[in-house]
């Protein structure tokens, strides 16, 4: 397949693996931030190809995993209403809230529709003026521009039957929180390439400098990840702590300036709770006063609630790189993708789900 096979070429992979083995002189712990990268690492067995000294730990970059239970419960509450058509990306439908999930609400008669872009939800609002159309706006900086565009479009068209349930989170504050933690063991980061396609690389410069930690913006194919690891190890071995861009075929230093302008118009930065981790300062987006009439939480008067995670789940530690999925006693037994106990088994991009799919034999 053009533009995919090139980045899975076994000969080129061997060259990077050899270069990594040659470059490493001591133990290093590197975190890949994005769940897509975690998935590729598990799927292609990348950890097993690295020297014993290099440990990969898995970061918080899985949007489904970090959406708090309370927010899922709010979605379920709205979706069960007779006057609502609830629109979402498909991967949120099977995510359990504290009692049920969106698929079950749909089976009981809720009008819940999978859309491929929030602009489809805007069209549903145009076509159904007697219904309230709610789009579940979750994810990182990658999905936010299209969601911002949908809200802006609804405002421009005067669509008062459209709104969004916002649960956007931001990657750099989460990396900063991991770096600042007294328990942190991550010495270098592979940052998520798609986030930087939107936001650029500049937010990482002060983090790399302040915490003396290399950050390599990295793509998602095996060669991207191997090259990102190699670049990170070269920095660590040289005693450098810089921001480097492995994913230059998609990422510019200043990112997508037009998208950022729209994001700054529609969203403002707020503290957000991350499932399994807790609240991180300045780590989320909410609608600005100009657009808050499109806020589903306000429109439906939803109160905040506290919902406890299952006690035995260590997904918060997995998402911070402090534990591996196989360290959890429930992994593969009481907790599986079809019966997830915690955040990182819920989504296909979660570290526990990736280990379950590709590394069960290794874990056994
Ligand atoms: S295996 Fe399940 S219970 Fe254990 S950390 Fe992962 S999600 Fe939580």
Task: Describe the fold and architecture.
The chain has 18 helices and eleven strands. The radius of gyration is 21 Å and the shape is globular. The strands form two sheets. A six-stranded mixed β-sheet has the order 4-3-5-6-11-10, sandwiched between helices. A five-stranded parallel β-sheet has the order 2-1-7-8-9. It is α/β, with parallel strands linked by helices. Iron/sulfur cluster is lined by residues 312-315, 318, 325, 328, 330-331, 335, 340-342, 344-345, 352. Residues 312-315, 318, 325, 328, 330-331, 335, 340-342, 344-345, 352 line the site of iron/sulfur cluster.
Write down the secondary-structure element order: HEHHEHHEHEHEHEHEHHEHEHEEHHHHH
Strand content: 15-25%
Chain-averaged pLDDT: 94
Q: Could you say which overall geometry the principal axes of the C-alpha atoms support?
A: globular
Main sheet specs: 6 strands, mixed
Low-confidence stretches: none
Radius of gyration: 21 Å
How many extended strands? 11
Separate helix tally: 18
Secondary-structure-derived class: alpha/beta
Question: Gap between N and C termini, in Å?
Answer: 34 Å
Order of adjacent strands in the largest pleated sheet? 4-3-5-6-11-10
List descriptors.
364 residues, alpha/beta, six-stranded mixed beta sheet, 11 strands, 40% helix, binds iron/sulfur cluster
Fold blueprint:
Elements (H helix, E strand, L loop, with lengths): L9 H14 L4 E7 H9 L2 H4 L4 E8 L1 H4 L2 H11 L4 E5 L13 H6 L3 E4 L3 H10 L4 E8 L4 H13 L5 E8 L1 H10 L7 E5 H7 L4 H7 L4 E4 L3 H17 L4 E3 L11 H10 E8 L3 E10 L8 H4 L15 H5 L23 H4 L4 H8 L1 H4 L1
Parallel strand pairs: 1-2, 1-7, 3-4, 3-5, 5-6, 7-8, 8-9
Antiparallel strand pairs: 6-11, 10-11
Helix pairs in contact: 1-12, 2-17, 7-8, 8-13
């Amino acid at each position: 397949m053009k533009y995919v096979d090139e980045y899975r070429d076994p000969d080129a992979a061997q060259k990077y693996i050899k270069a990594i083995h040659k470059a490493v002189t001591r133990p290093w712990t590197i975190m890949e931030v994005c769940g897509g990268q975690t998935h590729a690492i598990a799927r292609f067995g990348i950890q097993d190809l690295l020297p014993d000294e290099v440990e990969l730990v898995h970061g918080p970059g899985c949007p489904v995993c970090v959406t708090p239970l309370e927010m899922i419960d709010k979605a379920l509450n709205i979706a069960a209403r007779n006057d609502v058509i609830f629109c979402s990306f498909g991967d949120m439908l099977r995510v359990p809230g504290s009692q049920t999930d969106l698929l079950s609400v749909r089976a009981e008669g809720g009008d819940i529709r999978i859309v491929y872009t929030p602009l489809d939800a805007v069209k549903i609002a145009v076509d159904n003026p007697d219904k309230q159309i709610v789009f579940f706006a979750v994810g990182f900086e990658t999905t936010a521009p299209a969601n911002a565009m949908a809200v802006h479009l609804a405002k421009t068209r005067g669509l008062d039957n459209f709104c969004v349930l916002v649960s956007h989170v931001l990657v750099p504050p989460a990396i900063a929180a991991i770096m600042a933690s007294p328990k942190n063991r991550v010495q270098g980061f592979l940052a998520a390439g798609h986030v930087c396609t939107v936001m650029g690389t500049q937010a990482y410069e002060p983090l790399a400098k302040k915490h003396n930690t290399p950050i390599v913006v990295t793509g998602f194919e095996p060669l991207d990840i191997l090259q990102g690891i190699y670049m990170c190890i070269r920095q660590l071995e040289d005693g450098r702590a810089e921001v480097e861009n492995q994913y230059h075929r998609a990422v510019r230093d200043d990112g997508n300036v037009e998208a950022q302008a729209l994001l700054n118009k529609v969203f403002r930065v707020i503290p957000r709770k991350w499932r399994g981790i807790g609240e991180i300062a300045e780590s989320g987006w909410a609608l600005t006063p100009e657009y808050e009439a499109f806020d589903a939480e306000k429109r439906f008067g939803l109160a905040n609630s506290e919902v406890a995670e299952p006690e035995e789940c260590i997904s918060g530690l997995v998402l911070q790189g402090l534990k591996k999925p196989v360290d959890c006693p429930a992994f593969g037994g009481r907790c599986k993708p079809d019966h997830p106990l915690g955040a990182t088994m819920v989504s296909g991009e979660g570290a526990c789900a990736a280990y379950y799919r590709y590394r069960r034999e290794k874990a056994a």
